[in-house]
Design brief:
This protein is an all-alpha fold. The chain has 13 helices and no strands.
Length: about 300
């Protein structure tokens, strides 16, 4: 690894840490600025008991003291106990939910990438044909439709009407609809991105030179055009994967998938401060890391790119 690349990675790592710190700080103070608290809605809880519970979890201390204490714990990867799910640690709740969300997101992202690249390549190679127009119409429709709308439609059609798939996302068959709902919009965007990028590459001088030298059609497509047209796709794939995992909150609620999104939504509803902070930190860190990885992959795909 050359010094410029190493310097770039170190600079991005410092920026990533700073970004996560900003997210932690803003979330912490905004969360505490909202009226109420995690124990206000408890039934049959006297003011004395409520104060005792706040003292137990350190919520009776000055806000800045709570903030500095929490930062110290986060640096040691300690997120504390859940305020609502008694007896459970936040890190355990996040770990259990992340297993399902990561599996769901990775499967959806891989399908979106593979199908999107294939459809985009076919559309570019069959430009201005019926197949090209059909692909563009379908992808435009899927891009403009939010994942939770598609999920609701599939739920009504395939579970309520046809009874083909289970509505609950706790089984393998039940994950089919959430995966499709999450992958359709990114897949469509990748299709359009691949098509436009490949059309641009196919018009370059080195492609015409390769054709003039008698290089086979398929070698030109797979050895030159497709590889170079994937650079914009790689740019999009890292943030897309983070978006699918972190953006599956509503989809997980629709299909009752026991993922981190479901835990995050319930933590907001229940004002579970520690779980809100823990899930926010994990999701923000994941987004930052995926953006960094996508930037570094530029260099792998195209050595001509300088990371500065």
């Amino acid at each position: 690894m050359n010094p410029k690349t190493l310097k770039y990675i170190l600079k991005r790592l410092v920026l990533a840490v700073f970004t996560v710190w900003v997210v932690i700080t803003v979330t912490f103070f905004v969360m505490h600025a909202v009226p109420g608290g995690p124990f206000v809605g408890e039934k049959a809880v006297s003011p004395a008991v409520q104060k005792a519970m706040e003292a137990k979890y350190g919520l009776d201390k000055p806000l800045f003291t709570q903030y500095t204490t929490y930062l110290t714990d986060v640096i040691q990867l300690r997120f504390g106990p859940s305020l609502k799910q008694r007896g459970r640690m936040v890190i355990d709740i996040i770990g259990d939910g992340l297993k399902t969300s990561a599996r769901l997101g990775i499967i959806a992202a891989c399908f979106a990438l593979v199908i999107g690249v294939v459809l985009g390549s076919v559309a570019a190679l069959r430009r201005n044909t019926f197949l090209d127009r059909l692909i563009m119409v379908l992808t435009t429709a899927f891009v403009s439709m939010p994942s939770f709308i598609m999920g609701s439609l599939m739920l009504v059609l395939f579970s309520v009407r046809l009874h083909w798939l289970p509505a609950n996302g706790t089984t393998a068959a039940g994950l089919i609809m959430p995966v499709v709902a999450l992958m359709l919009s990114p897949m469509s965007y990748i299709t359009r991105l691949t098509r436009s990028s490949m059309l641009d590459v196919l018009g370059q001088d080195y492609i015409r030179t390769a054709k003039a030298k008698g290089v086979s059609h398929w070698k030109i497509i797979f050895g030159h055009a497709l590889k170079n047209s994937l650079i914009p796709v790689i740019t999009y794939f890292g943030p897309m994967l983070a978006y699918i995992v972190t953006g599956s909150l509503v989809v997980e609620q629709i299909f009752a998938v026991p993922g981190i999104g479901r835990a995050f939504v319930s933590s907001i509803t229940n004002r579970d401060y520690t779980l809100i902070m823990g899930t926010t930190i994990v999701l923000a860190t994941f987004i930052v890391i995926m953006n960094l990885v996508s930037d570094i992959l530029y260099k792998v795909v195209d050595p001509r790119i300088n990371l500065e």
